[in-house]
């Protein structure tokens, strides 16, 4: 019987691919209002360098789900995401759908090692950093890696999909 590899599907995928990354665990507070902002604060990182993973449906079709990776301090511009994905409109997937599609729980959805690879769009601001931080596949656990490796591992592309909260 094959021995199961330790770690999350995200860390296992990165390790198998030989990608350099760092792991950052912190004590998750279940009362936190924003998982991403909680991660940035707990890890002492600038919120524009920590990215959250969102699942959206293009033109309301669960068969055309996509992943948006945007800074935790920003919101996803759904119109821009739809345009990048070749659709007319996007809506956020409900938590149950996001969990079913990715294999991760909300607050721990990683763009890496998902159950089914979904088209991924990373906000173009990620290019400003040598290292970006994304969920490592569970609440209270982030991964640091280069934006280039993030794009390569997800088969993603950069797009201007973030907008300021307001």
Write structural notes for this entry.
It contains five helices and ten strands. The protein is of the alpha+beta class and 166 residues long. It has one domain: Alpha-Beta Complex (YbaK protein), CATH 3.90.960.10. Strand 2 and strand 3 form a beta hairpin. The radius of gyration is 15 Å and the shape is globular. The chain starts with 8 loop residues before the first helix and ends with a strand. 43% of the residues are buried.
What is the β-strand count? Answer: 10
Shape: globular
Rounded to an integer in angstroms, the radius of gyration calculated over CA atoms is 15 Å
Mean pLDDT: 92
Give the spatial strand order of the biggest sheet.
Answer: 5-2-3-6-9
- Series of secondary-structure elements, N-terminal to C-terminal: HEHEEEHEHEEEHEE
The number of distinct structural domains comes to: 1
State the name of the first-level CATH class: Alpha Beta
Largest sheet: 5 strands, mixed
Describe the structure in brief.
This protein is α+β, with helices and mostly antiparallel strands and 166 residues long. The protein contains five helices and ten strands; from the N terminus they run H-E-H-E-E-E-H-E-H-E-E-E-H-E-E. The protein has one domain: YbaK protein, CATH 3.90.960.
Please specify the SSE layout and strand pairing.
Elements (H helix, E strand, L loop, with lengths): L8 H9 L4 E4 L9 H9 L7 E8 L2 E11 L2 E3 L1 H7 L5 E3 L2 H8 L17 E4 L8 E7 L2 E5 L1 H8 L2 E3 L2 E3 L2
Parallel strand pairs: 3-6, 6-9
Antiparallel strand pairs: 1-8, 2-3, 2-5, 4-10, 7-8
């Amino acid at each position: 019987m094959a021995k199961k590899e330790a770690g999350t599907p995200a860390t296992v995928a990165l390790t198998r691919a030989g990608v350099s990354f760092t792991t950052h665990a912190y004590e998750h507070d279940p009362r936190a209002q924003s998982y991403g902002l909680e991660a940035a604060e707990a890890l002492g990182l600038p919120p524009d360098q920590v990215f959250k993973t969102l699942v959206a449906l293009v033109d309301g079709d669960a068969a055309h789900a996509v992943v948006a990776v945007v800074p935790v301090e920003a919101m996803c511009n759904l119109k821009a995401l739809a345009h990048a994905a070749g659709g007319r409109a996007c809506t956020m997937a409900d938590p149950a759908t996001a969990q079913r599609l990715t294999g991760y729980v909300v607050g721990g959805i990683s763009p890496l090692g998902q159950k089914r690879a979904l088209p991924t769009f990373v906000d173009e601001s990620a290019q400003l950093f040598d290292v970006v931080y994304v969920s490592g596949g569970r609440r209270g656990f982030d991964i640091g890696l280069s934006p280039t490796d993030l794009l390569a591992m997800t088969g993603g592309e950069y797009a201007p999909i973030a907008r300021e909260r307001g």
